[in-house]
Amino acid sequence: MSTVGLWVIGAGGHAKVVLEACRAAALPVAGVFDDDPAAAGRDLLGFSVAGAVPPPVRWRAERKRGILAVGSNRAREALATRLAGVDWATVVHPSAVVAPDVVLGPGVFVAPRVVINPGAVIGAHVILNTGAIVEHDCRIGDFTHVAPGSVLTGNVTLGRRVLFGAGAVAIPGVSVADDTVCGAGAVLTADVSSAGIVVGVPARAPR
């Protein structure tokens, strides 16, 4: 039996963006789920939130694929671990520009007007948010979120669970450690070798 429709996990603001991208890309959504009891029955762009996230056995029985529409990097990782064995979809908005040789991991979300240039490798469950630019030969680790309007110039490496803030820029060749938070508008001109928060121009840890 073939898979029919996606299950979208999450009922917050980011889930709205994902649902709209699914509509634009003509990807059928079969259900929306969220573990928050208060979300059950909530209308989300015409979808009624069906309740708690189904266990993996139900995903397999109903041959469903899914996307984790949750903004928190750690929450996406926890859900992916809990739902091991689920078939994850990659959702790409039709307005995005993705070079043919780009590698997109399972569960990646590519929002409107994102540009991903040749040689880029994007890990599992990464969010590339509205208008982000990922230049040639970048590497982005699992569960990272590249926020709206940010720019990764050539050969940039982001580790796992990085939050690369709105409007932030990394110059060519910069490497960013796992679990780093790059503040909105930060300009990274040097490697970030350990987890923490960096802000400003040039970006550095706040004092």
UniProtKB/TrEMBL annotation:
Top-rank taxon: Bacteria
InterPro entries in the cross-refs: AcTrfase_PglD-like (IPR020019), Hexapep (IPR001451), PglD_N (IPR041561), Trans_hexapeptide_repeat (IPR050179), Trimer_LpxA-like_sf (IPR011004)
Family annotation (Gene3D superfamilies): 3.40.50.20, Hexapeptide repeat proteins
Domain PglD N-terminal: 6-83
Cross-referenced Pfam families: Hexapep, PglD_N
Matching CDD domains: LbH_AT_putative (cd03360)
Family: Belongs to the transferase hexapeptide repeat family.
Record protein name field: Acetyltransferase
